[in-house]
Amino acid sequence: MIVVGGEALIDLVPAAAPPGALLPRPGGGPYNTALALGRLGARVAFCSSVSADGFGESLLAGLRAAGVDLSLVQRGPEPTTLAVPSLAPDGSAAYRFYVEGTADRLFTLPPALPAGVRALGLGTCSLVLEPGASAYEALLRRESQRGLLTLLDPNIRPALIADPAAYRSRFEGWLPYVSVLKLSEDDAAWLGGRVRDWLAAGPSAVVLTRGSEGLTVWTREGAEHSVPSRRVTVADTIGAGDTVGAALLHRLAGHRSGPVDWPGVLTYAAHAAALTCTRAGAEPPYAAEL
Question: Is the predicted pLDDT of residue 92 greater than 80, yes or no?
């Protein structure tokens, strides 16, 4: 089983009509990753705090339909976080968040993960907003020390980071507990670090998403592999990076021994992300579509 920890929220996506209308869609990087894993056929559990309001119910219904285990989900009466993406002409998205007093911030560390868990994925807002951020950090450290494969997707949202220097320092403190660091070119530029320094700090691999240019991985052994993106008609890019994270977790959690077939893993991830880009909102593909 794979566990994905982090926020579930509602994206208010611009509708085609009428002008200025917003369409609520399920979202949040970890939510999208768990949803994608379920659709790809992985055994996956979502670990989060989710509101008991109508939005929270709809979020859990989406995960349930994808076969995601909800036994680690905590519930609370606080409202669901809202995110309002603005779309650029190329389909890329920037976000404004409404997070004060919301349920996902109140996550507490579970006493244990289920038996048989092989991998843990974390990232995005959940590692920024307290008090939940400290609980997710404790989960990362505990499960890494227990031997789980861990994937970190920082998925930087600058509008939520009040003290960039403090966040960058905290990020560096996570790296010894991370097996695979997955990040975008924008994330890497904002963090200001270098791949070789990140690898030296702990991860066995760093995967960089480069938009229409594809994916690149660097490994601690000195290998570097790149694959191109798939050419598709882009509706938007919402959830594409999360789908990459899901594809990585799916393939790497099932890896038994010997060298990782990184070109094969990246090609699979690029294909899955491309299909996500053909649909409005975060709508990752099903296994049969790959």
Answer: no
